[in-house]
Amino acid sequence: MFERYKGGEKALLVHVFFPQESDIEDLKEFEVLVSSAQIEILDIVTTSRKVPSAKYFIGEGKALELAELVKLNEASVILINHSLSPTQERNLEKLCECRVVDRTGLILDIFAQRARTHEGKLQVELAQLQYISTRLVRGWTHLERQKGGIGLRGPGETQLETDRRLIRHRIQVILSRLNKVEKQREQNRQSRLKADLSTISLVGYTNAGKSTLFNAITDANVYAADQLFATLDPTLRRIFVDDVGEVVLADTVGFIRHLPHDLVAAFKATLLETKEASLLLHVIDASDPNLLDNVNAVDDVLCEIDAHEIPTLLVMNKIDLLDDKPPTIDRDENGVPFRVWLSAQNKVGLDFLFLALKERLGKQIKTCSLHIPPYLSRLRSRFYQLKTVQQEIINDDGSFNLDIRIPLVEWNRLCKQEPDLLYLISSNQLVK
């Protein structure tokens, strides 16, 4: 009878260099990933192969060497920077007498640590169950036996079949709950569409600085840390952009190379905020030497969720880590902003970002002069809240003459919300 070994916090790392994937950066990223999971790295084992071994993935000789290192270092878990089949995982565990976790399992573990909201926990649990369901028969061979003994003789199904049935039932329960969440998010999106509110979604590689930028723009105090997958649960805030009005800014989960498909499927409701956005802010760590590969990894995930055709503005973050790189806007041949250089940590270059947003989202502007009687001073306050008052003259009778410059969308919305404004227009209080 073979049961899976318990994991721990002391790990041996294993990475295989294949001819088509010889980049050392992938290994460095895996080390950061392990550190983000708060696991101590005892040693790193590397090897090269043309193709994975069917039995151990890493080859029998290297597997025996790994088993010796486990005993020598008293390691409690082996972390492999690749996706293993259930058979390979079980064979390595049996040989090394130690828990084996592949890259997908590690990412799922990090997500489980980071999830804070009820929705986030459901999404992570769904991905974990989908992952575990394929590993039952390989991890617990004793589950193939039927229950026996007085009080345990039942429908004649094996323990393995029972566990599979329970997992299927739990997956259905979670999917049902996530469907409710998805409907609620869809209702919120429809409300924003009716209110003509544009949505900007922050996307980018994990640890590119999305949450730091989000906090710098919105003063939202969203959890931000120098670690992978610090953000799992989406956060939405309203911000004001000149000549555009109020827009909704969404902070979303970061992407990574070889992101497990189960996670993409589980976070479907969350990623819809990205799919339905008016503009994507692709945040890039400008100081990362591997930024081109990171950008490609993000583009791959955007293609997977059908968000690759949404207009995108590149945000080159962390220029404080570059030598003498000033904040600026890069424009295409038509003069349209396509890239902004800034530092979210130091709040440098944010004015350039808002200028680029103004140009990319800018709509028709209405300018007019409005005469507001004293008893409608509340309407005057609304214009000041929207930051649309260009000039004001207070008359002797206590009335106000306001010069207004307002996005046409905001003007139409205000006309729907404020019957008094429609009265002023109809009574010729609109000077021009």
TrEMBL record:
Cellular localisation: Cytoplasm
Q: Does the keyword Metal-binding apply?
A: yes
Q: Which domain of life is it from?
A: Bacteria
Looking up Gene3D superfamilies in the UniProt record yields: 6.10.250.2860, GTPase HflX, N-terminal domain (3.40.50.11060), P-loop containing nucleotide triphosphate hydrolases (3.40.50.300)
Q: Which InterPro entries match?
A: EFG_III/V (IPR035647), G_HFLX_dom (IPR030394), GTP-bd (IPR006073), GTP-bd_M (IPR032305), GTPase_HflX (IPR016496), GTPase_HflX_N (IPR025121), GTPase_HflX_N_sf (IPR042108), P-loop_NTPase (IPR027417)
State where it is primarily located: cytoplasm
Which segments constitute the Hflx-type G domain?
198-365
Q: Write out the entry's keywords from A to Z.
A: Cytoplasm, GTP-binding, Magnesium, Metal-binding, Nucleotide-binding
Stored CDD domains? HflX
Q: How does it assemble?
A: Monomer. Associates with the 50S ribosomal subunit.
Q: So what does this one do?
A: GTPase that associates with the 50S ribosomal subunit and may have a role during protein synthesis or ribosome biogenesis.
Q: Which family does it belong to?
A: Belongs to the TRAFAC class OBG-HflX-like GTPase superfamily. HflX GTPase family.
* The protein, known as: GTPase HflX
Species, as recorded: Orbus sasakiae
In the record, what lineage is assigned to the organism producing the protein? Bacteria, Pseudomonadati, Pseudomonadota, Gammaproteobacteria, Orbales
Which gene does this sequence derive from?
hflX
